[in-house]
Amino acid sequence: MRHIKKRMRMNLKPYFLLLVCFISLNCLGQNDKKDFQVNWRNNEIEAHLSTGNDFELFTPTDEDVILSKKVSNIYIDSLSRINKNQLLNYSMSRYYRQYVGYFDNNGDKIILINAFCSKQGSSEELTKKLIMIHDGGSCYYKIKINLNKKKCFDLLINGEA
After folding, report:
1. Are residues 142 and 64 in the same domain?
2. Total of domains in the chain
3. What residues make up the domain containing 5?
4. Could you give the C-alpha distances from 126 to 43, 90, 136, 158, in angstroms and in order?
5. Could you report the per-residue pLDDT of 72-101, keeping only the tens digit for each?
6. Which of 30, 43, 72, 133 is the most buried (most CB within 10 A)?
7. Are residues 120 and 63 in the same domain?
8. CA-to-CA distance for 153 and 78, rounded, in angstroms?
9. In terms of domains, do 17 and 41 share one?
10. Do 1 and 44 share a structural domain?
11. Which residue ranges of the chain lie beneath pLDDT 50?
């Protein structure tokens, strides 16, 4: 009987280690979240979008975030290569990003990415209100992505005071 219990404990060790690793990685991932979909029902963002016309807001989906991130990263990287200098001082993975969704006058789905290199408030706050920073250099930038056309526009990198 003793031999069987010892054997069962030995067989469970790999599963226990996997469980501990899974829990640890899951917790780390939650604490290191860098993408925040702004819920249009819980914020005051209309004045900050400056689209110039009426528009309808929406909360971006996970798929919207993935596509926006991909298109904007390619766009910013290509601009850096054309200009032969780095537009942003940090790697794209270092930025925290807020994603705000709206439909333009043509009905196209637009995502505004508001990015900053250090976390500005709690995760809950980052889904409720748009963070506005003046100056700060390339630690802060905004860009709009037309998801229907997969094109970027209105890239704005903050200046330095």
Report:
1. yes
2. 2
3. 1-32
4. 10, 21, 19, 19
5. 999 988 887 777 666 776 777 889 999 999
6. 72
7. yes
8. 13
9. no
10. no
11. 16-31
